[in-house]
Fold this sequence. Notes:
This protein is of the alpha+beta class. The chain is built from four helices and five strands.
Amino acid sequence: MEIRKVETDKKRYLDFLLLADEQEDMVDRYLERGTMYVLEDDVKAECVVTDEGNGILELKNIAVAPAAQGRGYGKALVDFLIRTYTGQYAVLQVGTGDSPSTIPFYESCGFRRHHL
């Protein structure tokens, strides 16, 4: 399993991006300014983070192929982000809706609810 930074042609992963953010126009708002990573092993997962200023890194999009969900790929990406960006940012935050499928995942990765 290898995690690789995607430098160009990020839209080729649009099917993954739309798993986490169903509106393409919303994805377009952060995709090019964000840093994208894919977990390779026949591409099982992807994530995009953005620098929001003031020491805040935001996880904008994280998605795992439906057939690969529940196998630790999403958590591996979050752990990778923490290792990669520790010391560069004071906060790693996630903006997400109150979905019964996403909140438990983020809490299992160590995130805490901030704004309810």
